Predict the structure.
Amino acid sequence: MMPESGAQPVDVPDHRGDLDETPRRTGVFLFFLVVLLLAVAAGIFFFADRLANDQESSNTQVPVPDVVGQTQDVAVGNLQTAGFQVEVETEENPDVDAGTVISQRPDGATEADDGSTVTIVVSAGEDPVEIPDVTGLMEPAATRQLENAGFEVSAERQTNDDIDEGVVSDTRPAVGNLLAPGETVIIIVSSGPDEVTVPDVSGQSVPSAQNILIQDGCSAANQVSEPSTAFASGIVIRTSPGAGTKVSSNQCNVTLVVSSGPPPTTAPPPTTSPPTT
């Protein structure tokens, strides 16, 4: 049909060329996508293989030492020397001495990864017991009470000006502390006041005797006079307490007996003749 007079012709675009280009572009895109995916897969495979090899090399199996029955310190040292990490657990066990390894994980004489952790279970011994108060008791009574509580007992003696000889003044560890049965408790037993021996100052002048007594821990504030033909006036005859006597250091108060010289002489009474008859 012929166009009407005055009408303009309309151009219709031809898309047949575009349709031919679209499959070509899609093919190129898919090609590069497949190449990219293959490269990624190869990288992942290489990384996984490398990781597996590293893990296999790090998981070298080594023998685990058998440390059951050893003390904790020795067991830890042996395991660390063998290349293991060590974890310590404790467990009360009245049949195994405290500080001794009861069991281990993994067991001894097996193999485990080098550098892995071995757990040892260490005996804590029996339940701890509170140390009873034995201060103020005589040594034999204190010893019996502590032994009845399950402890070993050792005694140390110390001078004490305030506590009678033979009485317990303290314990180590202190009263009230917890200690495993079989452990040793030290009792501090008073040996009484510190003693000094009165020195021999006979034949000394009073000042000299006082100096000697002071140097030995005694005092000499008291003096008494006594006539003497053996010692000149002002010379010490003896002391009270006497020389060689042991006295408490806080009670060494010595009295000096000092010569006042020969006793006075008296004229004999006159003799009378009998009456003559």
Summary: The first strand starts at residue 61 and ends at 63. The longest helix spans residues 16-58. The mean pLDDT is 86. The chain is about 25% helix and 25% strand.
